[in-house]
């Protein structure tokens, strides 16, 4: 009886192995090779060259102590270090100057400039990860998180050019006689101030 059970187990094992081989051949015939299209299109060396170029442009602006840039394809994020004693309006002016310095550069025309110390520190880590060969998808996720902290969420209703239910009625236009009367009054007032 033991021999029959052992023989039966052996037959089932062999037939199971044979079925596994048929399945794997079938799988191999129908297997589709997928490549990561993001990695295939990103040239890390070229991106790092662009990053260094944009960092030099940013560092050429007065009050910018240091700049960190990550460029991936057409997407660029520029983090600038400025003096912490500057007030918000001065930092805004510096960010604007950095943006202006890049607007004519094909690699920096759409760059997002940040001056927040925490986000710039995170951007430095992302730049380091990029240089060390970390996967592009992870880097893109991190950049999306950084830029998401800057850009506000806007409800879709606010993006419509004409709201569905306006809060105010549009003012009626003046008829022609009222418009002429208004023009006459404005001219008289303007001439009155010229004479005095």
UniProtKB/TrEMBL annotation:
One GO term of the biological process aspect: sporulation resulting in formation of a cellular spore
Signal peptide segment: 1-19
Keywords, in A-Z order: Lipoprotein, Signal
Transmembrane segments annotated in the record for this chain: none
Biased composition (Basic and acidic residues): 159-184
Highest taxon listed in the record's lineage: Bacteria
Coiled coil location: none
PROSITE patterns listed in its UniProt record: PROKAR_LIPOPROTEIN
Biased composition regions of type Polar residues, renumbered to the chain: 185-196
InterPro entries for this protein: Spore_lipoprot_YhcN/YlaJ, Spore_lipoprot_YhcN/YlaJ-like
Region (Disordered): 22-48, 150-196
Stored Pfam families: Spore_YhcN_YlaJ (PF09580)
Protein name: Sporulation lipoprotein, YhcN/YlaJ family
């Amino acid at each position: 009886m033991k021999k029959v059970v052992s023989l039966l187990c052996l037959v089932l094992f062999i037939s199971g192995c044979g079925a596994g081989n048929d399945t794997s051949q079938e799988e191999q015939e129908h297997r589709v090779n997928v490549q990561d299209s993001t990695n295939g299109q990103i040239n890390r060396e070229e991106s790092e060259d662009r990053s260094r170029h944009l960092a030099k442009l940013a560092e050429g602006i007065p009050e910018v102590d240091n700049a960190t840039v990550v460029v991936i394809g057409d997407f660029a994020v520029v983090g600038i270090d400025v003096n912490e004693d500057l007030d918000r309006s001065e930092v805004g002016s510096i960010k604007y100057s950095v943006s202006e310095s890049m607007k004519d550069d094909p690699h920096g025309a759409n760059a997002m400039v940040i001056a927040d110390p925490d986000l710039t520190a995170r951007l430095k880590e992302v730049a380091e990860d990029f240089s060390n060969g970390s996967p592009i998808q992870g880097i893109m996720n991190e950049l999306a998180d950084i830029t998401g902290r800057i850009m506000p969420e806007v409800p879709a209703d606010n993006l419509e050019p004409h709201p569905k239910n306006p809060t105010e009625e549009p003012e009626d236009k003046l008829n022609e006689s009222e418009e002429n009367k208004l023009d006459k009054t404005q001219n008289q007032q303007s001439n009155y101030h010229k004479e005095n």
